[in-house]
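Postdoc handover notes: sequence design on the structure in folder B. Input tokens:
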């Protein structure tokens, strides 16, 4: 039986894993994407995260590929109300389409609605901060979109603690809808960017945290054991410097715990995230149904205090 967690002060409840749609239209085609989405939903999981920029970086793509694949799939799904669709805008889409100014955000939401073939978006997120735009302008635009029924709730991604505090104060003082979630870069290997001030701010503001790069782009799956393995994936080159003493300690601990729980290192790394304060559910991607099932195993893992302590110890920054 899946355990669902609620986003504070909303009607959103999600299963223990959020599927990351950045792979759709990039490393997997439409047919495989549909197979994975169907398997994900059939197992009772319910939240899918994407962004307008996915996957503009791939040769021949312009952005919106992921949203469009999800939209085609979503148009055939009969239970839209049981699925949480989260998307994002704000990163550079070219031709001046970037940032969090009101006019652009409104057009970006309309484009995402068309791509996703839906009347509303459950969670719309500022993909990155825009220091050139006053936060009250952004929040007022979001408030209008919420009032119009085009989005239900809003979230932030890649924001600092100070900017989250500022946004919260503006929303409170001007009676606008506040950010309800934060999407930070956080995993067992990359802890320092989130833990401390940012995590404390999320707790103070009751923000539900949905970490991205939860598996450090594959490093925490155990697929990469040396620099020779980096050719296994187009992402492999991202962590050539991870093959240090700390990285090896982490992989060794994940190996031991995955053997003890009869699961995979990836599932253990995700289970560790679920035990951290403020975490709603981690975002992770798969390129096959087999990989997906390995990730979904996180729902059945309950790490004990000693196991959490071990992972904390081996992953601590030296």
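Designed sequence:
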């Amino acid at each position: 039986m899946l355990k669902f967690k609620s986003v504070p002060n909303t009607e959103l409840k999600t299963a223990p894993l959020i599927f990351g749609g950045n792979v759709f239209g990039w490393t997997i085609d439409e047919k495989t994407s549909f197979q994975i989405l169907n398997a994900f939903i059939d197992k009772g999981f319910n939240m899918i995260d994407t962004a307008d920029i996915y996957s503009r970086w791939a040769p021949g793509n312009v952005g919106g590929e992921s949203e469009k694949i999800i939209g085609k799939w979503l148009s055939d799904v009969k239970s839209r109300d049981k699925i949480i669709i989260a998307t994002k805008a704000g990163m550079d889409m070219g031709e001046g389409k970037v940032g969090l100014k009101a006019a652009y955000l409104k057009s970006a939401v309309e484009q995402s609605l068309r791509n996703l073939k839906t009347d509303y978006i459950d969670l719309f997120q500022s993909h990155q901060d825009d220091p050139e735009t006053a936060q009250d302008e952004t929040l007022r635009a979001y408030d209008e979109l919420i009032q119009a029924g085009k989005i239900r709730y809003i979230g932030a991604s890649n924001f600092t603690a100070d900017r989250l505090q500022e946004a919260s104060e503006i929303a409170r003082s001007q009676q606008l809808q506040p950010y309800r979630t934060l999407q930070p870069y956080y995993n067992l290997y990359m802890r320092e960017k989130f833990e401390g001030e940012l995590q404390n701010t999320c707790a103070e503001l009751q923000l539900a945290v949905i970490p991205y790069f939860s598996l450090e782009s594959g490093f925490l799956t155990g697929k990469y054991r040396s620099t020779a393995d980096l050719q296994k994936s187009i992402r492999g080159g991202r962590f050539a410097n991870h093959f240090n003493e700390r990285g090896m300690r982490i992989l060794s601990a994940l190996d031991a715990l995955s053997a003890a729980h009869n699961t995979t290192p990836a599932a253990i790394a995700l289970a560790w995230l679920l035990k951290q304060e403020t975490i709603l559910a981690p975002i992770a991607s798969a390129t096959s149904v087999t990989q997906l099932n390995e990730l979904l195993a996180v729902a059945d893992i309950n790490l004990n205090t000693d196991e959490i302590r071990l992972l904390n110890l081996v992953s601590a920054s030296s």
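Context for whoever picks this up: The chain has ten helices and ten strands. Don't rerun without checking with the PI first.
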